[in-house]
Amino acid sequence: xxxxxxxxxxxxxxxxxxxxIREIISEECVQIRNAFRKEDTKNRPRNISxxxxxxxxxxxxxxxxxxxxxLIAHTSYVxxxxxxxxxxxxxxxxxxxxxxSTNIIRNDLASENKFIVALAxxxxxxxGSVEMLRxxxxxxxxxxxxxxxxxxxxxxxxxIRTIRFVPxxxxxxxxxxxxxxxxxxxxVVVGGIxxxxxxxxxxxxxxxxxRKLVPGLLRMLKSLVDAGYAPExxxxxxxxxxxxxxxxxxxxxxxxxxxxxSNQMIDILTQVGTSSGLNKNVxxxxxxxxxxxxxxxxxxxxxxxxxxxxxSKFLSGKDNNMKYVALNTLLKGVNKDSKxxxxxxxxxxxxxxxxxxxxxxxxxxxxxxxMNKKNVKExxxxxxxxxxxxxxxxxxxxxxxxxxxxxxxxxxxxxxxxTLVQVLTIGGQxxxxxxxxxxxxVTGRNQELQxxxxxxxxxxxxxxxxxxxxxxxxxAWVIGEFGDILLKKSIEENESIDPSQIIDLCQIIITSxxxxxxxxxxxxxxxxxxxxxxxxxxxxxxxxxxxxxxxxNIEIQQRACEYFRLFEDKELLVFSFxxxxxxxxxxxxxxxxxxxxxxxxNENSMKNTNTQENTDxxxxxxxxxxxxxxxxxxxxxxxxxxxxxxxxxxxxxxxxQLDFNNNNNNQNVNKQTTxxxxxxxxxxxxxxxxxxxxxxxxxxSNNTQxxxxxxxxxxMGILGTExxxxxxxxxxxxxxxxxxxxxxxxxxxxxxxxxxxxxxxxxxxxxxxxxxNVNTQKKNPxxxxxxxxxxxxxxxxKLVSVNGIPAAMVQTIFTxxxxxxxxxxxxxxxxxxxxxxxxxxxxxxxxPANNIGKVTxxxxxxxxxxxxxxxxxxxxxxxxxxxxxxxxxxxxKNLPLIF
Amino acid sequence: xxxxxxxxxKLGQTRLAQYYTTGLSINQRVALENEITRRCLSRKDxxxxxxxxxxxxxxxxxxxxxxxxxxxxxxxNELGILExxxxxxxxxxxxxxxxxxxxxxxxxxxxxMILDEMALNGNIIETNKKTVIAPLHIIDQVSKKLx
Lengths: 899, 147
What we know:
Chain A: This is AP-1 complex subunit gamma. Chain A: Its main location: membrane. Chain A: Keywords: Cytoplasmic vesicle, Golgi apparatus, Membrane, Protein transport, Transport. Chain A: Residues 778-896 form the GAE domain. The complex is a heterodimer of chains A (899) and B (147). With 899 residues, chain A is of the alpha+beta class. Chain A has 43 helices and 10 strands. Among the domains of chain A are: 586-610 and 693-719 and 721-773, no CATH class; 782-892, Immunoglobulin-like (Sandwich). Chain A is 62% helix and 9% strand. In chain A, the strands form 3 sheets. In chain A, strands 3-4-5-8-7 form a 5-stranded antiparallel sheet, covered by helices on one side. A 3-stranded antiparallel sheet of chain A has the order 6-9-10, with no helix packed on it. In chain A, a hairpin with a 2-residue loop joins strand 1 and strand 2 (238-239). In chain A, helix 18 packs antiparallel against helix 19, helix 34 (585-598) packs parallel to helix 43 (760-773) and helix 40 crosses helix 41 (725-734). The longest helix of chain A has 24 residues, at 469-492. The radius of gyration of chain A is 34 Å and the shape is globular. Chain B has helices at 26-41, 78-96, 101-106, 108-118, 129-146, and strands at residues 2-9, 14-19, 50-53, 56-63, 66-72, 119-120, 123-124. Chain B starts with a strand and ends with a helix. At the A-B interface, helix 1, helix 3, helix 5, helix 8 and helix 10 of A face strand 2, strand 3, helix 2, helix 4 and strand 7 of B.
């Protein structure tokens, strides 16, 4: 016995508890399943309607999918209607069941009943998959020329989906679109305009052909604007506002970058753009669209000013919707008219304090958009004023914008420091990590600033209120680095600071349970640096560090142990914690270029890395002096891979990645040592591993001095005896922390992107790394391994050597020739057992459309045994185009590389 | 383009949902609905009708106990969508004569038909109320005759 939908709903509504509802639904589902099994054709439509209702309640309904197919195959319209409805509600466009409906839809498209054709078209237009749309494109094209307007308009929209998903079919529809635009039926014209907009997105070159339509469109718009009362299309006194909006949107595209056609539009745009409006939503809606059009096309200045004034009227009004759209439009047109925008600055700034979060967000974006060197002080202050009152999420946005402003538009150094300290003290917990990099960047320039910054931070640090973690970390770093300057200059200025006060403060912070481990790393480093900068406190500092040698956190423990040990060799200590070299902007540029040339995995992954992760690494200070720039790079590279992944991929992958990292620890250690060797003697081929802790017998081709090299090895020696290289470093890696060295830190900072270079010595070392790590060979073969559906994947191979075993560095380049960007790109590679793959993250997850840009992803194939083999691999590529996920697997053989 | 159209009641229960090329699975849709509804329902009357959510912009309007939510991408005219929602409501109203939540629940197929007449594949197609309702009237007459 089957219940009516009406009764089911009543029953559900009568039930008061969720468990009651669940019971009713599961009972009903059993009934429906039984009916399906018995092939109960009579009640099938009713059952599907019930399933749609059940679907809304959030229960699984997938067992009804096939029944929908049976319904649409039925001859009666009533059944078909419910069937198609079920298809679009119960299925997503990815379901395989959907593909089975292709033939039924094909038959329905050829039906004589216009309602059946319309049903099939709607369904195809709403959920049609790529395959279906490709198969049925000829039918859709035919229907565009149908006698019935009702069919034509639906076919136009189905055509939009067709070309969006299957761009190569665009040629079919280019011919028909003009006739749609001259149709008498408004619905068909609306469909035609939208189809044309979509065609222009896919075939931007055809724009000159379609520009000829401008006069006709203008006439149409004029007749709509001037039309009196037209009952059929009347919306509160406006004739078909939707059609007007669509015409304006099409004009915007056609008039862009074309003086000639923009000129033709001036009259009508002036008429529409200056109409009174501001009362009814319908009028505002057209006004808004016309303002966007005026700002986009090549319109004369006076018209632009009028448009911006209209927007400022929107802004100062009471209606929040108008404020929102005005801010949104100003944001889009911000570059071209920043002069006229300036006059409206006050209104915009006022919106920062609006009660509505949507408006505040828009206002924040816009304030940042109009920021420049002249107004940055004022505007940043406005932002900072908003910070304490803003809600949690919004604070992150504000601090991010303030930080970028500090970096980008700073008028003078002192202001930079003042603002940085201010944002750190009031919003430290909401700030992104690279604020530390900005601070080091600023203070790196001269002693005056170093003193100014350290004094300011020290004074603020004394105040308990400001002690958020990020602030303490920055302050600790600056005070540690410039402690001596702070003391010396304060004496000169007669405001002498007692050094023991600084040490005491450090002790208070490091022993406080309120501070997290990362902060403690920083304080440990501050202490050890201070020991080299201030005379006479070594014993006190040793006493403070001592308890941490048994700390529960292994990283703190390790640092404490190693620092404690370093006190034994004064010279080494001083050398290890020498001040970071001054950063040179020009040098940095050069280095970045070099890096780009070399394109090794390390460098690539680092270039692509989020600055935030990097700073953590650069500033996670490391006791061990040995590796210098190079080592930090290698390790940095690996860490970057894992940390970057953490952000982008699911936790499972993350785990895998970590696991992968741990597994490779030993190997990495080996790599480091090789690199040290390479760095010291760029071309040296002898095995250095065996005598890494021995004397230095390699000719030094870098500008590093021999003395330093001996020291490097000394430290390594210390480490070796202390807790064994492998394990010591292993932990550092596994936790993704503590890989930069005391000096490496400085250099990492130099470029601000963790390339671990930037200054004198660093430069040489960085280069050493670039070549040392990877012994580049001359032949670099490449191959196109995939070229389908607009996606092209090219691989560039490079033979390199890891620990003397040849390896392949493969740079994969993805390009997209379709007009739609491909998103959520995941590229995976599997290799035979005797090989091993190390992947760096892709430069982006989105491949831009029309071959505009490319995405690169580098991976390294390493042999586990040293035998000669041909490289072969299995690749899997996953991406989304228009939201449709696509997954392809492919075996790659016959690669031009033997190693 | 329009990404989805949702009608929910003030308790957040979905009464109608139509998705256009969002690439979401059924489960993701349910999660999205819950999240967006929760956010929209908590907003005050005076605040603007737009809500940014992930890469979507949600435009919503309240009619008595029903919320109409439309998710769009960057290109869409927000005020135009508000007008479209209003047009949809008026059309539903004309067909059902003082539409209420129950009308939509009991005649969900008709409600979908009206929506399909007005929008397809995320694009607005017909805004003339008479034209939208005409096919429904024909169907109603035919099914009456059959009975």
